[in-house]
Design goal:
Layout (H helix, E strand, L loop, with lengths): L3 E6 L7 H7 L4 E6 L3 H8 L4 E4 L6 H6 L5 E4 L9 H6 L4 E2 L6 H16 L2 H9 L6 H5 L9 E5 L3 H10 L5 E5 L5 H6 L3 E2 L2 H7 L2 E4 L13 H6 L5 E4 L8 H9 L5 E4 L19 E3 L10 H17 L33
Parallel strand pairs: 1-2, 1-3, 3-4, 4-5, 6-7, 6-9, 7-8, 9-10, 10-11, 11-12
Helix pairs in contact: 1-13, 5-8
C-alpha cells in the first residue's frame, strides 16, 4: 500500500501519468472514487489529499476527512470546493491561476472583435447570398480606435487582455477594489469605479471569479447603466451575471451585443433565449483550451500535490491563512499565489 493516498472523483480521465511525474519517488497513488457524495466520503475518509474534478467537494465531504493535507484543483475557478469549510479544517486549497492566462486573453479579444465587427451576422449574409448587405451594416458602426474598454476585475487575464487591446488604440479603464491602483495604472488602464466602467465603456469585459460574494454581481440595474451601443463580454464565470437581466437587456436594447464563453447554467437548456438571439456570440466555455492545456494543468496538479505531501507550501493557495496554522509551520516556503483573482 502506498504511503500517500490521493482520492479523486472517477470523472472522464484515462490515467494519471502526467500528474504522477511530480509524485515519482513519494510513494503516492491516485485512486478514483464514486462521484456521489456518500460514496466519495466512504472512499476518501482516510485520504491524504483530494484531487478535485467533476463534482462538488462539499462541507460534508471535507468534514469527513480525517487526514487530508490538501485539496487540489486543475482549474482557475475554485467554486466547486467549499473553501470556507476547508479553511475551518486547516486544509489548503490549491488551483492553477497562471497556466492558461494567454489562451483566455486571446479568446476574450477574439470575442470583442467578433462582436464589434458583427462577424456572425456578416458570415450569415455571405452564406445566404446577401453579399451586398454586408458593407451597409458595418457603415453604421464606428471605428474601433478611440473606443473604451472597461474591465470588471483586473486579475491576470484582464491584464493580458489589456496588453492585446492597447495596440488597437482602445482607451481602457478597470474596476477592481482588491487590486492596487498603481497596478492598474502601470498596465495603461485607468482605475475607476464600477459605475464609471458601466456608463463609459463601449466594451465591458467581465473577469470576476466565481465566489459567493460576487454571485449575480451584475443585475438589471447594472445593465441599465450601460450604453445602448455597448458590447458585454464574459470569459470569467457565468454565475457572476444574472442571466435573466442580461437577456432582458439584449431584448430591450439596453445594450447592443453580448459575447459569452460562460453561462449561468452549463450546458444551457435548449430553450435558453440566448441560443436564438442574433445579437449574441457564444462559445462553449472553451477559452482556456489549447494543445498545451491538459498537459500543463495536469503537471501543475501533480506538482502542487507533491509539494504539500513532501511538507512544503503549495505554489498557489486560495486560502493562504491556513498555512500560518501552528500545525503547518513545519512547512518550507516555496511560494504562494494570490488566489483565483491574481
Amino acid at each position: 500500500m502506498a504511503k500517500y493516498r490521493i482520492v479523486t472523483p472517477a470523472f472522464a480521465q484515462v490515467g494519471y501519468a502526467l500528474e504522477n511525474e511530480a509524485l515519482a519517488g513519494l510513494d503516492a497513488e491516485i485512486v478514483e472514487a464514486p462521484m456521489d457524495e456518500a460514496g466519495f466520503i466512504a472512499a476518501a475518509r482516510d485520504a491524504d489529499a483530494i484531487y478535485a474534478k467533476g463534482m462538488p467537494i462539499t462541507k460534508a465531504i471535507i468534514d469527513s476527512m480525517q487526514n487530508c493535507k490538501v485539496i487540489t484543483l486543475g482549474s482557475v475557478g475554485v467554486d466547486s470546493v467549499d473553501v470556507k469549510a476547508a479553511t475551518a479544517r486547516g486544509i489548503p486549497v490549491t488551483n492553477i491561476p497562471d497556466t492558461f492566462i494567454e489562451e483566455v486573453a486571446d479568446h476574450a479579444m477574439m470575442l470583442l472583435l467578433a462582436g464589434f465587427r458583427r462577424l456572425l451576422e456578416q458570415d450569415k449574409m455571405v452564406r445566404e447570398g446577401r453579399w451586398k448587405e454586408g458593407r451597409p451594416a458595418l457603415l453604421k458602426i464606428p471605428r474601433l480606435m478611440g473606443q473604451t474598454l472597461g474591465f470588471i476585475s483586473f486579475g491576470r487575464v484582464a491584464r493580458a487582455v489589456a496588453k492585446r487591446a492597447a495596440p488597437f488604440g482602445l482607451r481602457m479603464m478597470a474596476y477592481d477594489p482588491f487590486i492596487e491602483e498603481m497596478t492598474i495604472s502601470d498596465a495603461g488602464v485607468l482605475p475607476s469605479t464600477l459605475n464609471e466602467v458601466l456608463s463609459q465603456s463601449d466594451f465591458i469585459s467581465m473577469h470576476a471569479p466565481a465566489r459567493p460574494e460576487v454571485h449575480h454581481m451584475l443585475r438589471e440595474e447594472h445593465f441599465r447603466q450601460m450604453k445602448p451601443s455597448a458590447i458585454f463580454i464574459n470569459t470569467g464565470r457565468g454565475p457572476t451575471v444574472q442571466e435573466e437581466a442580461l437577456i432582458k437587456a439584449l431584448q430591450e436594447g439596453w445594450i447592443a451585443h453580448a459575447a459569452l464563453d460562460v453561462l449561468e447554467t452549463e450546458p444551457p437548456s435548449h430553450n435558453n433565449p440566448l441560443l436564438r438571439m442574433e445579437n449574441v456570440t457564444l462559445t462553449a466555455h472553451v477559452a482556456s483550451a489549447s494543445a498545451r492545456f491538459d498537459e500543463a494543468r495536469k503537471r501543475r496538479v501533480g506538482n502542487e500535490l507533491a509539494l504539500v505531501l513532501s511538507g512544503k507550501w503549495p505554489m498557489s493557495c486560495v486560502n493562504p491563512a491556513v498555512l500560518q496554522n501552528t500545525a503547518l509551520r513545519r512547512w518550507q516556503p516555496v511560494g504562494m499565489g494570490r488566489g483565483p483573482n491574481s
